[in-house]
Structure formats: structure tokens, C-alpha cells
Specification:
elongated
Length: about 90
């Protein structure tokens, strides 16, 4: 027979798994953004462009899964794109 709080225990297990998965995705995004910023500071346009594409893909995936809010993702993408455009025009 199941314990009295089996549904609560299951819910706790599920939320813990989601928390770990979300934390991993957020960490990967932060690392990706830092790499992009590093490339822009080095003025490496080609590497920055590749990094920008990868980061935008990660951000969009996170927004689709509900890990990050869509407006947060839009703001981050906008700022990164603006930074990249200034790098490109300063070339």
C-alpha cells in the first residue's frame, strides 16, 4: 500500500528533477553569453557571430521550454545583437 503522502513525495521528486535540469540550462546559457562577450572584447567578428548564433539558439530553446520568460530572452538577444552590430560597424 502506498504511503499517505506518496503524491507529495512524487511531486517533490519531479520538481527536484526539473530544478536541476533548469539550472543546467541556465548555466549553459550564462557560459555561452560570457564566451560571446569575450569574443566581442577581442574584436573577433567571426567567432562572435558563431557564438551569437549558438547563444540565440540556446535562449530560444529555454524560452520554448519555459525555463526563461520570453521577454527576458528577447531582451538578452536584443542586447547581444546590438553589441555584435557595433563590433561589426567598428571593423
Amino acid at each position: 500500500m502506498a504511503t499517505k503522502y506518496s503524491s507529495a513525495e512524487k511531486r517533490h521528486r519531479q520538481s527536484e528533477e526539473r530544478r536541476i535540469r533548469n539550472k543546467s540550462a541556465k548555466s549553459a546559457i550564462k557560459t555561452s553569453v560570457k564566451k560571446f562577450v569575450a569574443f566581442t572584447q577581442k574584436k573577433d567578428v567571426d567567432a562572435a557571430e558563431i557564438s551569437l548564433r549558438e547563444t540565440i539558439k540556446k535562449l530560444d530553446t529555454a524560452a520554448g521550454k519555459g525555463i526563461l520568460h520570453k521577454n527576458t530572452v528577447a531582451r538578452k538577444k536584443s542586447r547581444m545583437q546590438r553589441l555584435f552590430n557595433t563590433l561589426k560597424t567598428a571593423r
